[in-house]
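G.,

No rush on this.
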Amino acid sequence: MPGHVLNRRETHKQQTRAALEDAALALFGRKGYEETTVEEIAAEAGVSVRTFFRYFASKRHVLFGDVAYHRISLLGERLAKRPPEEDPLDSVRAVLEELDFTDPAELAQIRTRMALMQEQPSLIGTYLLINHELQRLVAAFVGERSGLTPTHPYPMTVASAASSAWDVALWAWAGGSGDLVEVRRRTFDQLTLGVTKP
């Protein structure tokens, strides 16, 4: 029975986190990011302010939520599972393919987040930190698989291409310029054209 209790507890946590994210995005869309308070987000989700802070450090953190942080966690897990003999660039390409955004509900949340960043440029700092974490993770993986330090130009180039491809694709798609997945693929291929392991 302990396993069932743990599963119920974990499910409840996931549901609470999702409810807070949904409530925050709904309020940000209706009232604006700056005008929305943590108290209002908690009330909209039907939880206490104390509960909000169990899941998110600040209002800024709930803006990006699991849609970003969970993706980065999955990226690390799936890169670690790629065959050791595989070219690191091919490994990164394959995992990016696996993690492309395709779920309609998720895409709707991403569009809301991108629109909020356009309206509130101060939010871009947190977005850039997420991109930096993605770069750091990819550079560490490529460096390890190549026998190089993460700060060697090769791992850093592949990592920058991975981050930039997602960045370019998200902003282009949010602005109505093309399919998110297709732009991400094309951008990554263009940025890594001619890049080879030393």
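When you get to it, here's the other one too:
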Amino acid sequence: MASPDLTQELTCPICLEIFTHPVFLECGHHFCSSCISQSWQKVPGDVSCPQCRQVFTQRNVRPARTLINIVEKFREVKVTQPQEEFYCQEHEEKLKLFCEDEHKAICVVCGMSRAHKTHSVIPIKEAAQIYKNKLETSLETLQKQMDLSLHRKREREDGISHMKAEVDRLRNEINSEFEKMHKFLFEKEELMKAKLERKSNKVFEDMENNLTKTMDEMSSLEAAIRDLKSRLEVQLAPEFLKDIQELLMRSQMEFHKPGTVSTQLPVAIAGEPFKYIKVWREMRAVISPVPASLTLDLETASDGLIISQDLTIVRFGNEEPDRPDHPKRFDVYLNVLSSQSFTSGRHYWEVGLGDKTDWIVGVCRESVNRKGDITQSPENGFWVIAWTEDCKSLKILDVISQLEMKPRKLGIYLDYEGGQVSFYDSEDMSHLYTFTDTFTEKLYPIFNPCNNDSDPLTLLSG
């Protein structure tokens, strides 16, 4: 009889029988050719080894020629040897039956006994086939679960890699943006200090010159005073009157007051807070995106809208303006677009909401339907949020009603290449909502003041 170890080595891990036409995979494990084919038959895409779970992108199997020869020799030897038999320890009979109630092999005598009389008993070979089929089904189910878990594992790993890349990108972006601001502020600081030194040195020089002139005048006066005091101490008349006329002329000298010199720095240097406001305005050139200044496009405005002369304020009004029909104009919904549009880059603008009870704000594609009923949703090219009772019927996202405090100013951020439209409460820059999509055409800011109140929407200047 062949050794149990050899029998185990020559057994297929799938069917648990001696190999039939054995093949081997790239990982080195062996299977029956038909077993591995059936195992992979219902698996789409990449496959894996049933034993070690190594994933393969190609279904390469090769005949195990040495193992084929060994299996053939083993079968020849096994045929010439007596088969191993299993016997009932109680009756010393062959185990030819299987009790399905107790899930164990029994002999014919056991099957006829009182203990198994009411049990379901079937031939042992039939039971082996039944449970083999069950195990194969379980194996197939587990294999599918394993394949699914491998797929999920790859998804999670890809997600982690993507998140790490995104964090690195944002970290580099933060470094870059603040480096630009630090460099700008450092250069402005050095420039302002150098300007302060130049201006202050000029003021100090003028003040020092003025002081020198004053001191020269003081020296002349002191000399005249000394001379007068000295002459007044003389007792003899002839000596006292000597050069008296010249002495009188010197005693009549006057103090020549030097010209007035400012003791303050120029307003351009010392003025507060104007010098810093100027720097702040200049710093916007290094910040991206800088708040944009938008205007409204009259050609797109619905007839129910009143728009200010500077094209920055829109409200609903009963006094309908006489506007000619235009292909760009919204004819049912109270929408108006900005004159500015975007096809790339990052942009930010703000809208004053005040105490309005109803409004719709966001962006839309250039090609959106502007006539008749409109379903304002991302699928139709509208990425908008609202504060209005009718927003659900219009399929407009209503995130404002969930807030404890309604914003008075709304900030909208568009990242065209990044595929994002984000909304913020611009007073504290708290995030409200972000749409994620792919943009392929021109986008316009869109505004709708609604018809439930007459308060306006205001486009705030950058």
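The longest helix spans residues 124-232. The radius of gyration is 48 Å.

Enjoy the weekend,
O.
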